[in-house]
Amino acid sequence: GEYKVQRWDIHKQDFLESAPGLGMFVTVTTPSDEILLSKLYGPQARFSFTSHISGEHTICLQSNSTRFVAFAGSKLRIHLDIRVGEHFLDESVLQAKDKVNEVNFRLEHLIEQIHHIAKEQNYEREREEKFRKTSEETNSNILWWAIVQTLILISIGIWQIKSLRDFFISKKLV
Q: Where are the transmembrane segments (predicted)?
């Protein structure tokens, strides 16, 4: 990203080209709230970061001083240019063909690795889902087996009580 801060000048009724003494804290966080970049820059700067996870990243620009803002009538203009994707920081690297070819080869290799990792993750996800379904069916079967055993034991107990009662009645012991 690249930004430029302009401060409102009351006398000229226009924004000044640069805001001397005014700086910006730039903070970049990942979707999992991990801080990738937290640095103080001047009124005009270029910042970059590399993230190893995909998702929505948060870029926060915060003035380092409220004194200038209050003095200037609370008006600041910030020009912000954000480039997303892979960019080279040094333009001279792009002009060297052997370096470009090496980087291109590495990039293609990394892309292949990303596709391979994504396929492995999908395969693991499917296996986990199948295992979970099997586990739930097994737990369900165990529950039903316990219920059937309990019913069998209760019915055998009732049958034994009835049989013993009939036996004692027939022998005239009760």
A: 142-161
Q: Average per-residue pLDDT in the chain?
A: 83
- The answer to whether residues 96 and 133 belong to one domain is yes
Does a structural domain hold residue 153? no
Q: Evaluate whether 23 touches 65 at the Cβ level (below 8 Å).
A: yes
Q: Does 68 share its domain with 142?
A: no
Q: What average pLDDT does range 113-141 have in this prediction?
A: 95
Residue 172 pLDDT greater than 60, yes or no:
yes
The closest of 48, 24, 25, 45 to 36, measured between CA atoms, is 48
Lowest mean pLDDT among 12-16, 93-97, 99-103, 136-140: 93-97
